[in-house]
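INFO worker-7 received task bundle
INFO bundle size: 2
INFO processing item 0
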Amino acid sequence: MKLRQDFETTSDCRLTTFKVRAQIIAKQRNTISGIKHLCRYDNSGRFKVDVLFPNNAESAFGSLGYQTVYHLFNQEENFTADLVWLEVEKKRLELKGEIIALSIAFELDIFNLAKILIEEQIEPLAEKREGPLVICGGVLPMINPLPLTPFADIIMLGDGELLIPVFAELYEKHYLQGKEELLKYAAGAPGFLVPRYNSLAEVQPLMERRKTVLHSWVLNLQGHFGNAFLVEAGRGCPRKCRFCASAHLHTYEYHSKERIIETIREWAPPKSVVGLIGSSLSDHPDLEEMIKEIVGLGYKVTVSSLRPDVITLRLAEALKRGGMKTLTIAPEAGSLRMRKILGKGMSDRTILSAVEAAYQAKIERIKLYFMIGIPGEEEEDITAIVKMANEFSRYYPAGKMELSINTMIPKPGTPFELQEMAGDNYIKAVRRKLREEIKGLSFTKRSYSLEYAQAALSQGDEKAGLAVLETVKTGISFKDALQRQGRGIGH
């Protein structure tokens, strides 16, 4: 199907709601006010798909995976896909597709999935559900699909570009035979985990090197990067930090500067913001030159977080010329000893140089990510965070610097996967110490109970998914629900 670019913002819309208000974008009707489709599709396909992101618009439109799933389904001749996402409001979504396709990236969104199914009066447990068909893909299933197995009929492991055409063909051939026959056929296809008919050990993810540059198909002012046209500069990471799941999921690959620029020229609206994203954007060999060229074409630029050891004054100045107001850096730990344990052994001087470069380039704000609860962590390592933040405040005082203090979540597939998460009392005491000793700076709010749930789902199996369902249905705490299922983590 030949796609044509379409840069007109249209105003027609269809609103339905859930406990969250969902805004459903229908093709040809084309969009809600303030949303811009970059191409149009034929919407005559007889198989209807609700492409659901179980979180808000900001997260949904910051996800290239979500937009890619929408695009791929609409590339299939007999399928029509609508985008569905959530916003806070106490009404229903009214999902209408015979297929619900989820792109799911965050462990806590499994709670949203359970809520949606219940509020939509759809049986949440796949083994009892007659319809619709619920399929899941995305980053989270690649890390650990097991907590999704109570809810999903099919879990796709691998690249949507490979899996969705296979699913479409299977569905067209076998849907008239009924759900069970369809699932049996799907269980025999590479990359398809069908909880009723095969096991995770039997499924090899279906993946290959990227043949095309992933990019935005829809722009939304509420997206995580504003109205940015997102471009994937690469995936995976060669650094293999010990805590990072992404670095251990994919072989590192990046797109050439020329391919990225060509994609931007072809698809990005004139004078828009281009968001360069990737797990290891810092390792792109032509990052600085690429940013300069994008700015030279008349675009603004925003980037995901950068490693401190690549931030030079020239790079910071290029970002400033591209309109960057906030630079995000992830030292991860305050002490060199802890950074070495994490596999990120850069010196304090290197990190300070990055902050100095941002300051000299007149970038307005800086955000710093740190982790606590790292195996082997001692009081002196926490004191090192205090020292570092206070030193940086000479350049970025209150109102100009934000700290995000995150509990380390042991992730499957990483060297830390068997580590226990640090306990509630310890984490609260550390956060209290940091707030008391780092004066005047803002801290991103974090909830230990949510971090605990994230860790339990990251490390959990189908019982963790059932605990989610019990929590949503009864209102008991997730920790209590886990204990009823015979599961638990941490101290």
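INFO item 0 finished
INFO processing item 1
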Amino acid sequence: MITPKPNRLELRVIAGPRSGHNAVLNWVFGLFSGEVLYYSDVSLADSADASTAILPLKTVDDLVRDLYVACAENVDLTVAYNGFETNKWRTYAGISERVEYVLILRDPYNTFASMIRYFGVDRSVELMTVERWKQYALQFLGLTRYLPRDTIYISFNDWFISKNYRRLIAHRLGVPFNDRNIHRPVGPASAFQPTVDDARMLNVLERWIVMLCDRSYRDIFHSDPELHCLAEEIYGESMRTIKNALCG
């Protein structure tokens, strides 16, 4: 059970599988010096014991918890928002002084490359459809309004490569910046590389190269040109190189 106590900050996070959100959140945890509680996958509570998803990362005797994070992975945005607002997943951990919604998104080329390599084609389609990634992308661009207007949007790509981008995220969260946890690999093992001690060794933005000859991977992008448009609008011209390699 989650022990209720006041939280200085509560983050309601939404992300897709293999989106890099575990790495981003682990870095966020390093920004806080006090107690941190992470409810790692609130969607588990619909069919499993919700307590298995609770990770007390730092436990101290303070009367107020520094940070409480609940993450909904691979959930429709309407379902996620309603679930958090109505406490559908029994995520009550105490009254929070401030609540922020966070959407974490990785580019589609590396997301689906990692998913197919890790889960296989059939399981990947079952876990996260192209439409789900596009729903997240449209919200990320502000073209839909499933989440609150002041939602914090985090591009995994930019977070990974840019210290200034990470500094802006820390500022948005209202805490001093540090990179204490930036090089610590977390979450499920890489689908492409064995376990490493330094996350800098993980070529997380080049997974698509390994999958170029995989027909099931290429078919995802051949059948839906909108993916290319959304990727380039969010992540810039670097996506055009990948598009040309896939479709050229």
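INFO item 1 finished
INFO post-check item 1: The longest helix spans residues 108-119.
INFO post-check item 1: The two ends are 53 Å apart (CA to CA).
INFO worker-7 idle
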